[in-house]
């Protein structure tokens, strides 16, 4: 297992180096001066230009420049935002928690509702129930996320007025940031309005979380259904039925744990798509996360923000994909058998 983990670590490092190389090449293709693209400084003075040349080795060869670029980015120097004139690293650290919070809530919604529906679709003898569930998942998978987000905003936000359609929290509440996760910060706050702020934060996250959860929800339902149907034909399931165990007990204790393995694998494969959908959702609902921040940087041609946003999103996807693969290998007996056989 140690050799396998080492190989996954090497894969992460190699993929990250390729990512940095792509960003380095793209940065030099921006239609601006290199100093401006690398640092975000509009009009650097002679001393700043000399410092930039020294930091990024602009008077050296491409390989030396790439190594210098890598050192600066790995040290946390992501430049200055050309829009706000604030360090990009600080802005990135401020918007990351909002994206993580929205993604975690959406993933939990997809799993909480998707797994039971998948089990129901696989075990129900009623054809109408099966076809209804599969029709819902097919419809959800086919609906464009921007159309769904705008429609939910129009129905529940504008026409009915039930839910807010933008932001994380009403501006009337002043909650001191602790973790960056607004749902947690409202609970930790000692303000007398903390409870009301927590309810308001829940109301704000409902629409964007539902919109983002639709795609993984449909995938979870379909994969769970297919996995349960396949597992129920296995010999050990037939043996459990022959011993007189209740069907629901067999499903919960034997079939479902094994069915979750392909669900985990498929969720890892769709991380890139999920991240792309998250950016669209953040823009639609004005959610102050990395996606909205990156799109704003693209519109304003804020080159340092573009680099930092792409770098952060890509590294997170790479890291989570490898972690899910490691977790899948750890909990899947067949993968462990293949792993030990290869060693």
TrEMBL record:
It is a multi-pass membrane protein. Pfam families: BPD_transp_1. Residues 96-328 form the ABC transmembrane type-1 domain. The chain crosses the membrane at residues 9-30, 102-121, 133-156, 201-224, 274-299, 305-327. PROSITE patterns: ABC_TM1 (PS50928). It is found in: Cell membrane. The keyword Transmembrane helix applies. Keywords: Cell membrane, Membrane, Transmembrane, Transmembrane helix, Transport. The keyword Transmembrane applies. InterPro entries: MetI-like (IPR000515), MetI-like_sf (IPR035906). Belongs to the binding-protein-dependent transport system permease family. OppBC subfamily. This is ABC transporter permease subunit.
């Amino acid at each position: 297992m140690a050799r396998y983990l080492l190989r996954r670590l090497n894969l992460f490092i190699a993929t990250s180096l390729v990512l940095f190389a792509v960003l380095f090449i793209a940065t030099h293709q921006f239609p601006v001066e290199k100093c401006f693209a690398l640092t975000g400084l509009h009009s650097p003075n002679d001393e700043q230009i000399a410092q930039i040349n020294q930091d990024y080795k602009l008077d050296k060869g491409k390989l030396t420049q790439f190594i210098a670029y890598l050192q600066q980015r790995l040290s946390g120097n992501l430049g200055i935002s050309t829009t706000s004139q604030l360090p990009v690293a600080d802005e990135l650290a401020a918007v990351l928690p909002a994206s993580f919070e929205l993604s975690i809530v959406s993933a939990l919604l997809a799993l909480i509702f998707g797994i039971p529906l998948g089990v129901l679709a696989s075990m129900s003898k009623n054809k109408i129930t099966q076809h209804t569930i599969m029709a819902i998942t097919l419809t959800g998978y086919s609906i464009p996320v921007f159309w769904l987000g705008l429609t939910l905003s129009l129905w529940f936000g504008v026409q009915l007025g039930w839910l807010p359609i933008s932001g994380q929290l009403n501006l009337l509440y002043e909650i001191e940031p602790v973790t960056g996760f607004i749902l947690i910060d409202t609970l930790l706050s000692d303000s007398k309005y903390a409870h009301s702020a927590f309810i308001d934060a829940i109301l704000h996250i409902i629409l964007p979380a539902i919109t983002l959860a639709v795609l993984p929800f449909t995938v979870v339902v379909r994969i769970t259904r297919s996995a349960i149907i396949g597992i129920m034909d296995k010999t050990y399931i037939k043996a459990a039925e022959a011993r007189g165990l209740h069907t629901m007990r067999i499903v919960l204790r034997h079939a479902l744990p094994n069915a979750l393995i392909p669900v985990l694998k498929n969720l890892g494969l769709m991380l890139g798509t999920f991240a792309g959908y998250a950016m669209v959702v953040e823009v639609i609902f004005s959610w102050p996360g990395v996606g909205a921040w990156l799109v704003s940087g693209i519109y304003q041609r804020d080159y340092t923000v573009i680099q930092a946003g792409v770098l952060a999103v890509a590294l997170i996807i790479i890291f989570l994909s490898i972690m899910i693969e490691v977790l899948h290998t750890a909990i899947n007996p067949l993968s462990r058998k293949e792993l030990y056989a290869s060693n």
